[in-house]
Write a structure and sequence with these properties.
heterodimer, A: 207 residues, mainly alpha, elongated, disordered N terminus, B: 628 residues, two-stranded antiparallel sheet, 2 strands, 67% helix, globular
């Protein structure tokens, strides 16, 4: 394991190792397209949520439940994790393996922090009477925010798997595109959260 | 029978057992083999849904018929539409794209061969899941549009199979779309600029973009129905604050682009067949490209024309009506360009060109009724009547199916190394064309005379009897034509003679490859000098295309069973969730559902962890082959 890393560190990488091979180029472009499709998926869930957010039936509404300080902390955690994932990619591009792994670890920790708050939030809402089947609002809320949470979970498992692979393979022309596209995906999740924060929580509280 | 080549190693071939052959097809990542698998399974579903259509027509042959019960009729109607759209038309077109696009752009495979195989297995197992419903509580019966709240709150377990089957195959379609986008953008041979791409590749590119942006709304909508049905969500439960129009919007935001997902590659096929058999360059190539893109773009802004009678208001109706009419303009450009390509050409009336020539007037008729139904006030009259049934069969059968048959006769020699029988192909064409117009032309009038869509029977003596009888007779002729095609295929497989590598004196790169096409397509990637690259080379008196690279080792991905297992995992998962209505208040359905997901995601992780070293083919090997 150790020698693998050393061998990879001594080898010189091109400036953009993620795009140096055709496979790498294909992967990066493919993930960009995938994120385009994901955007439409989330747009559909946002549209559904906006149409149903007043359909609270006899259940609690967002204005009654949402706590902005909690959501603020979650936002900060996720936004910071986006920053650390950029730093990881920069470290990857300058072939600094250890640095990259450190930033990735921090990204994962921040992501888990976000997820823990989200689970806490959902459990709390359920206790206060907002279950998945309470009203159209509750179904739309849990579907939209839960879909985002599922994406965060998937991203975390993905990055951890890449970290484990990295221990064996280091940074090379095969693994570089993998780190890069995982980071792209992670940014995307972040951007979606910004919209959730605005549309679901801020507009739910004030609008 | 097939030409022996070094690569196929005939001695070994003969010894290959059934198990080994099966394993080879289950694990293949070769775009040519996957193309054949798409074509075969799509063809099979075409026959199944065709038989369902005939049963529907037999039921409607005479008034107050009791050949089918109303319930079975609804099931057949739903399955006919769903299978034809999702599991016949689309896979057959994707099959052509798989087989032909890499050859047309001078590539050795798609950008992601692994995902290509995964896309196929997801489609096939999703389709099988839908069809399992027949044996488990009955097929879905809420129409192919699956409108809520009928589907979300009132119908039986069949709807779960519809939702999950389409969901699984939809994932497959989505990744296939991404695959083609990346392939066509990144992997064209040197010199093949975007404006030198063959029209079929252009339409494949636009169709893939449509898939990318149209399928996610369907995914979202299917999730909503699934959550309402299985997890007691309230999206469509008005009493709990829900809204039933959401499904209609999501479905048609997907559904209308879906029409262009089907018709654009069909246009592409026609744009290949007509120049080849008119012996002329495609007239107005640039305008054709522009028209294709414009249709795709505007195609996203017309979905509410399916909802004119919902009550969205006159403003919305006018807006969507005008957008719909605008689509007729680029479509008209295409029609005229085909006509001008034929104008002054030396037209060869082969089977393939007959299908293409039959396509033009037939599709125009569907287009004209399309403009008619886009007039919102008039649509109140046409809506949910047989007029609409006639309209969309004119565009889907008269457009997509005729084009698919043209493509079938055109590319068969490249895909299967043999030419289909020409006289039989022409007989099939005439029988099908006459049967088609007999079936659907009269349905325009049935609709205007008041026959509603989706009713399982009607009362006699209202002026509908003769029209329905004619329609049924026509459908039997189409059925006969399909049997002729099958006979043709079987005869060709048994007695066909090996085809030349360029049997039609073609224009595009796929005809420059040897037949059978070697695994790696091109020993050396060709250098492209213009539109219709192979034709240009032939006109310069060259036998081969100029190469863009020196001979070298070729790297090909290795076969893998993971795509199949991954799709199987999702199949198991979907099947598990479908069990919820059979085992109420039991955790078993959810357990099976989760186990399936674990299998699928586990496969994903394994694929990520293991690097594929691939297979290297040395120059000496492919040189030997070229000499034979």
């Amino acid at each position: 394991m150790q020698t693998g890393i050393k061998a990879n560190q001594s080898a010189s990488l091109p400036e953009h190792p993620e795009r140096a091979t055709l496979e790498g180029k294909n992967k990066v472009l493919g993930v960009w397209f995938f994120l385009g499709g994901e955007t439409v998926l989330f747009a559909s869930f946002f549209g559904t949520f906006l149409a149903l957010r007043d359909g609270t039936a006899n259940g609690p509404s967002g204005a009654e439940l949402f706590s902005l300080p909690l959501v603020f902390i979650m936002t900060m955690l996720l936004l910071t994790s986006s920053l650390t994932s950029v730093l990881a990619v920069w470290a990857m591009q300058s072939n600094e393996y250890r640095k990259m792994q450190r930033w990735l670890t921090l990204t994962v920790l921040l992501g888990f922090g976000f997820l823990a708050f989200e689970i806490f939030e959902f459990v709390e809402y359920a206790h206060q009477g907002l279950r998945f089947s309470t009203s159209a609002f509750s179904s739309a809320f849990y579907t939209l925010v839960g879909c985002h949470g599922a994406h965060v979970t998937f991203g975390l498992i993905w990055i951890i798997l890449l970290q484990l692979q990295g221990m064996k393979k280091g940074i090379n022309l095969t693994t570089a595109p993998k780190y890069y596209v995982a980071s792209l995906y992670w940014h995307f999740i972040d951007v979606v959260w910004v919209f959730i924060f605005t549309v679901v929580y801020l507009m739910g509280k004030v609008g | 029978m097939s030409q022996p080549t070094l690569e196929q190693k005939p001695e070994k071939d003969r010894k290959k057992g059934f198990g080994q052959t099966l394993w080879e097809w289950l694990t293949t990542v070769d775009h040519k083999k996957i193309g054949i698998m798409y074509l075969v399974s799509g063809g099979l579903f075409f026959l199944i849904a065709g038989v369902q259509a005939m049963l529907i027509r037999i039921q409607l042959m005479v008034p107050e018929n009791d050949f089918l019960t109303a319930f079975t009729y609804n099931e057949l109607l739903t399955m006919h539409g769903t299978i034809m759209i999702f599991f016949a038309a689309m896979p057959i077109l994707v099959g052509f794209m798989n087989a032909i696009v890499p050859l047309q752009i001078g590539a050795r495979d798609l950008a992601f061969p692994f995902l290509n195989a995964l896309g196929f297995w997801l489609f096939l197992l999703g389709a099988l899941l839908l069809n399992v419903s027949w044996f488990m509580g009955g097929a879905p019966n809420a129409g192919w549009t699956n409108y809520v709240p009928l589907s979300s709150g009132y119908e039986g377990s069949g709807i779960d199979f519809y939702v999950l089957g389409l969901q699984i195959s939809g994932f497959g379609t989505l990744i296939t779309g991404i695959n083609f986008l990346v392939t066509i953008i990144n992997m064209r041979a040197p010199g093949m600029t975007l404006m030198r791409m063959p029209m079929f590749t252009w339409t494949a590119l636009t169709m893939s973009a449509l898939i990318l942006f149209a399928f996610p709304p369907l995914t979202a909508g299917l999730f909503l129905v699934m959550f309402d049905r299985i997890f007691d969500a309230n999206f469509f439960d008005v009493a709990a604050g829900g809204n039933v129009i959401i499904w209609q919007h999501l479905f048609w935001i997907f559904g209308h682009p879906e029409v262009y997902i089907l018709i654009l590659p069909s246009f592409g096929i026609i744009s290949e067949v007509i120049p080849t058999f008119a012996k002329k360059r495609l007239f107005g190539y640039e305008a054709m490209v522009f028209a294709t893109i414009l249709i795709a773009f505007v195609g996203f802004m017309v979905w509410a024309h399916h909802m004119f009678t919902v009550g969205l208001g006159p403003f919305v109706n006018v807006l969507f009506g005008i957008a719909t009419m605008i689509i007729a303009v680029p479509t008209g450009i295409k029609i005229f360009n085909w006509l001008f390509t034929l104008w002054g050409g030396r037209i060869q009336f082969t089977a393939a060109s007959l299908w293409a020539l039959g396509f033009i007037p037939t599709f125009v008729m569907g287009g004209v009724t399309g403009v008619m139904v886009s007039v919102a006030p008039a649509d109140y009259q046409y809506h949910d009547s047989y007029f609409v049934v006639a309209h969309f069969h004119y565009v889907i059968v008269g457009g997509v199916v005729l084009a698919v048959f043209a493509g079938l006769h055109y590319w068969w020699p490249k895909m299967f190394n043999r030419k289909l029988n020409e006289p039989l192909g022409k007989a099939t064409f005439w029988l099908f064309l006459i049967g088609f117009h007999l079936t659907f032309f009269v349905q325009h009038f049935l609709g205007l005379w008041g026959m509603p869509r989706r009713y399982f029977t009607y009362i006699g003596g209202q002026g509908l009897d003769t029209g329905n009888l004619i329609s049924t007779v026509g459908s039997l002729l189409m059925g006969g034509a399909s049997v002729l095609l099958l006979i043709n295929i079987i005869m060709t497989a048994i007695r066909g003679v090996p085809a030349d590598h360029d049997p039609w004196d073609g224009r595009t790169l796929e005809w420059a490859t040897p037949t059978p096409v070697p695994k790696y397509n091109f020993a050396q990637i060709p250098q492209v000098r213009g539109l219709d690259a192979y034709w240009l080379a032939k006109m310069e008196g060259k036998k081969d295309l100029p190469a863009a690279e020196p001979p070298g080792p070729i790297h090909m991905p290795s076969p893998s069973i993971i795509p199949f297992i991954m799709a199987l995992g999702l199949f198991i998962s979907g099947w598990g969730f479908c069990l919820h209505s059979f085992y109420e208040d039991s955790f078993i359905p959810y357990l099976i559902g989760i186990i399936g997901l674990v299998i699928a995601f586990g496969c994903m992780a394994i694929h990520s962890l293991i690097d594929d070293p691939g297979i290297h083919i040395e120059p000496s090997e492919h040189n030997k082959e070229r000499e034979t």
